Amino acid sequence: MRSIVAFLLYAAITLAQFGPAVVSPRPGEALQGMVTITGTSDVVGFTSYEITFAYPDDLTGTWFLISQSSQPVQDGTLTVWDTTTITDGNYVLRLLVFLDDGTSLEVRVPDLRVRNYTPVETATPGPTSVAGTATLPVVTPAIPLPTSTQFPPNPAALTPSRILTSLGYGALAAVAGIALLGVYAALRRRSR
Length: 192
Fold this sequence. Notes:
Layout: H1 2-18, E1 21-24, E2 30-31, E3 34-40, E4 46-54, E5 64-69, E6 76-82, E7 89-99, E8 103-114, E9 138-141, H2 160-190
Parallel strand pairs: 2-8
Antiparallel strand pairs: 1-3, 3-6, 4-5, 4-7, 7-8, 8-9
């Protein structure tokens, strides 16, 4: 039993030294206002990282971007999350580190409780490893970001030439209308 515990401790320390990590916030922690997210994104092959959050029961796999950076961080501030812009509730935080070989490393911090507008229950942060990482990194293939689609030109768009043409027709119609009123008024005077 001791050898298993020693191995797990060694593995946690090794992964913490060579893998991405989120030290704060910890699982189960209640968050309010501006929350500093600390950890490490500096790993071999680093190209960039992003911090995202999601609803824990979301089956669509939708992640909302908090920040992204191409600057590696070693045991420091990854970003500051303004939790006042989201609804109180439970969330999952994710650090996704992209590598130059097209893969990515992922660290998730589950059970974060945003409580800006509701009472905070007793804090019950989850366990952390020796180095303070909330979870161990998982290697996943990088998913290419979608490219923007070029839309056809809008046929209802107004160009300066169309505006000038419309103004010209409007001015011509106004002058014609005034001229017709003048002719009508002149004919009416004659008939009296």
